[in-house]
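Collaborator request, handled under Task 6.
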Amino acid sequence: MESLAGESVVVIGGGIGGLSTACYLADAGADVRVVEKNEQLGGRASRLERDGFRFDMGPSWYLMPDVFERFFAEFDRTPSDYYELSHLDPHYRIFFKDSAERSSADDASGQGPRAHGDRVDVTPDLERTKAVFEEYEAGAGEALERYLEKSRENYEVGMEHFVYEDRTRLRDYIDPDVARQARGLSLLGSMQGHVESYFDHPKLQQIMQYTLVFLGGSPTNTPALYNLMSHVDFNLGVWYPDGGIGAVIDGVAELGAELGVEYDTGRPATEIKGRTGGFEVETERGPVRSDLVVSNADYAHTEQELLTPERRGYDADYWDERTYAPSAFLLYLGVEGDVDELAHHTLVLPTDWEDHFDQIFEEPQWPDDPAYYCCVPSETDDDVAPEGHSALFVLVPVAPGLEDTPGVRDRYRDLILADIASNTGTDLRDRIVLEERFSIDDFASRYNSYGGTALGLAHTLRQTSLFRPPHRSKEVDGLYFVGGDTTPGIGMPMCLISGELTAEKVLEDHG
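Structure tokens returned to the collaborator:
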């Protein structure tokens, strides 16, 4: 990289995007300090530790291992220098909330549909998965192969030419070379229409669309381009870093420290003053001065709370009119005994999930028949729970901005635990020894997220690529942004790449 020797940078927020940016800037010679509001680094990828139980509070899927390998290789290192990976088998398990028969009497495991609902394991064995698809719909195995080939093509072209290259202007897309690379990509249409062109069975459509939860969208509002996510989970695989996602955060932070980054936790930023060469970031423990500032705090919070009105790139109406990814209702549970019916990653899906998405994006309310996700790291990692116990959390996507009272949480907690018992055969209610809850108001207070969204701006067609807010501040020279609200978008791998793109902007301007 070009040199930033002599430049000082304050990074506000120690999420994965901020930590990534800090590594790149320190490697270029800058004096980098990360100031983090909360007591630990990681942002939404924080840890919760209680009474011998350990939970990843946010991200729990290790996807796109190639992105992490590329990141560490930039610094002549590998992920294994900091953490080890286990390939999960199954990648994930799906329970459907019905008892409908398949066309074959046996499922992939040699057992018929369970009385409490139909179950599918998606494994690293593609031939086995194709056979499962064929049981639901004649010809679906071959259709899956064609779908994944298209997904692989979109992934390889999209990552090389549209993710790692930050095309922020319309003219970047009119270039003949860009048009040639984009030829054949699924740029238009929705994921719903794209999946329907391959599969008729609604359950198969759901299996191909569930990855939209990682993008904060629904099948009808997410561009078909994101079918590339199926290449991510079917072909690249689902992994578990020993120690959980927190071990990845530790690894990136350790790399930063080796490069000279300093970390200052428990220090909320309250105002950004100044411009290039003369910034003063006010914090609750006094000011921090620097030549440049990178904000990994939520974009709307940075502009609306840390900058005066004349220094904002967007007004309040802009943020109010955006489409936001869901928030979540989370239960972190320590339970006695095993939960063998649940895999490390388990999804529970209603037969018709349109109502759930409508209750998030169209008519916001607490879903009455929710789709949800259970994560049981103790199925893979013995160190996350005391002996004889299991650690798990349950995540229900809900609309941001809903009323979030203790009474609502009590009611929803009972609904979800009853639903798990009914649809997976796992009754947790009499075995819970530890329980913590986290929901909309907590996302807003802990992470300063707009409306309590868990992820930020959703990946709708009008909020993808150049339509997301830029890495450079529109009004303040020397102020930059990184994280899920910028390009390339939501998710740990994308935020890791966002750190590289932001660093490139800083280097273009000051290197």
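The cover message to the collaborator said: "The CA atoms of residues 113 and 324 lie 37 Å apart. The domain at 8-84+243-321+455-510 is CATH 3.50.50.60 (FAD/NAD(P)-binding domain). Please let us know whether this matches your experimental observations."
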